[in-house]
Amino acid sequence: MFPDKAHKICALCKKEFQQREENYINFRKNFVPHSQRIYSETTLPACVDDYDAFIVGSDQVWNFNWSSLPFFLNFVPSTKIKLSYAASIGKDDLTDGEKNIFRKYLADFTAISVREKSTQEILSKELGRNVAWTVDPTLLLDKEDWDEICSDKKYDFPYLFCYFLGSDNDQRLLAEKYAKQHGLKIVSIPHATGTSLWSVCLNDVDFGDYQECDASPEDFLALIRNADMVFTDSFHACVFSCIFQRQFFAFQRLEYGGMSSRIYSLLEMFGLSERFCDSEKKRTMEYIELQKKAEYSEIPQKFKERRELSERFLAENLR
Predict the structure, then answer these.
(1) How many whole angstroms separate alpha carbon 174 and alpha carbon 203?
(2) Deepest of 19, 36, 153, 226, by most Cβ within 10 A of its Cβ?
(3) 45: number of Cβ within 10 Å
(4) CB-based contact 153:198 (threshold 8 Å)
């Protein structure tokens, strides 16, 4: 069985995953404005004279597992506007060495904002200055904005959409049990981490009734928008479940438990904290079936306030 699975993984990576990468590149060209010149880490200082303000963010630009000094705008002089917008450190604590890096490189920032409440508390304490808690930039756009980008509806039957970035097989088994009990098909996007033989989790092979291996960002949005239920451990799949007002359950990625703070912060804003299955007790059919439907009749006041603060943060600091 193992060689058979390896063969399937290889086939997925060599064809569909390469197409997915092409789709992503096309999405960036069509929807994300870029400068004419693309800079590398070594050539970044050459752009300083061409811009009046520099913003770093969002996502985990300050996660030390993959961050580098340009994400701290170390190439930008203090005479320029330097901001972070919805930056994330991807965990709930910092080592002494990491604290020193933040104190050194954020000292001359004009203003600082982060994506998680826990990160706001950590950096406010370490830096001794105000740090704003702002929403992920995807949440600055309205549902109608994302509707314009979505692909057309692909499936006419009711389905459970699954997008897992972690390797926990129990979550996939729970999804299969839920789908069977509710008469749903499972549509999944296997998680790709590259183009080598081992770039997809073994647990994603043969998982789901329909696999969208070459899904574009537009397809990703549409699959969530038209789903009857979403199971995911992805922060942005949770974001778009909220934006498109879908029923969903979020799961903790066991390999990176410290990254859960961003999902906590998001669901707290929407008053949907009970949708996070972050314990063994909650990762059960019994818990899921007891939950009421997610309520979207009104946009929560907490989210509206946080979004207004986020827009104000950018407007005031870019003047």
Answers:
(1) 13
(2) 226
(3) 14
(4) no
- The three-class DSSP label of residue 56 is strand
**Least confident window among 99-103, 201-205, 230-234:** 201-205
Please give the single-letter amino acid code of residue 313.
F
Helix %, strand %, coil % of the chain (to 5): 45, 15, 40
Please list, in sequence order, all residues whose beta carbon lies within 8 angstroms of the beta carbon of residue 98, skipping any fewer than 6 positions away. Answer: 64
Residue-level pLDDT at 193: 62
Give the length of the chain: 319
Which DSSP symbol is given to 15?
I
Give the tokens for residue 234: 């992805």
pLDDT at 261: 80
Among 84, 187, 85, 134, residue whose Cα is nearest residue 308: 134
> Are 149 and 32 contacting, i.e. CB atoms less than 8 angstroms apart?
no
Encode burial over 279-311: b for 16+ CB neighbours within 10 A, e otherwise: eeebbeeeebeeeeebeeeeebeebeebbeebe
pTM: 0.89
The residue type of 124 is: S
**C-alpha angle with apex 81: 122 to 314, nearest 5 degrees?**
65
User: 124, 77, 86, 85: which is closest to 102 by C-alpha?
Assistant: 124
In which residue are the tokens 């203090």 written? 78
CA distance 141 to 159: 26
For β-strands 81-87 and 111-114, DSSP reports them as: parallel
pLDDT of residue 199: 58
Enumerate the β-bridge partners of residue 210.
Answer: 187
Q: How far apart are CA 35 and CA 237, in angstroms?
A: 28
Residues paired with residue 230 on neighbouring β-strands, in sequence order? 161, 248
> Picking from 189-198, 210-219, 225-234, 287-296, which range would have the lowest pLDDT averaged per residue?
189-198
